[in-house]
Structure formats: C-alpha cells, structure tokens
Specification:
By secondary structure, the chain is mainly α. The chain has a single domain, classed as Rhomboid-like (Rhomboid-like fold). It is built from nine helices and four strands, in the order ββααααααβααβα. It starts with a strand and ends in a 12-residue tail after the last helix.
Length: 239
Amino acid sequence: MVKDEHGPWGPRDGGEQTAQGPLEPPIGAHPPAFNVPWPVLVLLALLGAAYAGQQLLSDARVETLLLTPQALDQGRWQVLLSYQFLHANLAHLGVNALSAAAFAAPVARYFGTGPRGGLIFFAFYIVCGVLAGLGFVAAHLHGQAGAVGASGAISALMGAAARLMDRPGRLSPIWTRSVYSLGGSFLVLNLLLAMTGFAPGMDGARIAWEAHIAGFVAGMVLIGVFGRLRRAPAETLLP
C-alpha cells in the first residue's frame, strides 16, 4: 500500500494509497493439503503479528515506516524492511497471506526445511523484498507516494517458483518456455492493474506494480544464487 501526497495515511482517513495487489499462483505440482513447510507458517505468523502491532501505532508513527524516496534520502534505510510488514487493511493482508502460502511452499522445500534452509528462505525473502522496494522507489524518485505491503517479496517467491514448475525441487534455466510465459502473463496482469487501478478490497488504493515486477525478476534470478547456499544440493544449480 502507498500513501500519496494528496491524502492522509490509511483507510481510516480515506487517503489515497497504493496497495500491492493480488497475485495468481503458478501452475505446477500440487503438494498434499496442509503440508506447509514451517518457514512458511512462521512467515504467515510474522505478517499477522506485524499487522496486529500496526493497529497499536498512531498514524504518525506508521507514516515513518512507509517506504518513500524521501525516507531513503534522509538515510532511513530501515523502511526497506518495515514496509514489507505493513498492510492497508485485513483484505490486503489476507490476499498477501494467501499468495505467500501458495508461492512460498515450493521455494521453502527447495531450500530445505531444516534450520539452515529456513535461514536461507528468510534471507532470500527479505533481500528480494528490499530489491522490490528499490524498484518502486526508482520509479517514483520525485514522487511523494509511499509503499507498504508484502507482495513485492511475494512476487519474488512467484518468480522463484516459476523456475521450479517443470521439475519440482530442481531448478530450470531462466530462459525456459514455462518461466517466460508465466513472467509475461504476470507482466501483462500488472500493467492492466496499473492502468485500471482496480484493486478489490483495497479501498481505492493504487497498485505498486513496479515493486511486483522488480520482485519477480529478483526472485527469478536470485533463487539460483541462494540455492548455492543449501547443504549438499541434489543437482547442479543453474544461474
């Protein structure tokens, strides 16, 4: 979600915002129901706990946690982390949580479900979320809008999962038909959302599509880099 210069923070005040909108899960293997790796459950719990904590903060305090070009200019680089755990409302949180559950599971299994794999998963998630945020800022260098939401990082999980679709648990090269077809569809969807401004349940908020695209590309590329950190990888990792 994004705060615009023409409106106050948050849906409680009716201000103009930019939300990171819904995502569609990739087509691929269907693991057993409820067989969710523990890093994914921890991620969902963190998103929920962060939203609960957000409700205890004043609007002025929340303002300081938004990702804006001005915040980075002032040296407040921590907003590249904080923005990933803020949400506009319960609908925004719910859409992102469902998307995370869909995309994160194959990525978490790929990294491994031991302690080492969990650490790699969260490092991957945070780094990609930071890169998604920088993509948003690069597109709004002279703007006043500020972004919030987990879907930049979740888009990275989608980009990573795209490389696991053909061979679950094993990476495919970036330039395969399934990866660029999903990437192309994702790009078209986000451009349509950007043009129409349609974001169901977001109280008129705009879509931070730039963060989505940057996150998807980051996840698609960095899954190979972070995969090299796994213990005893089962296959030769492709860049």
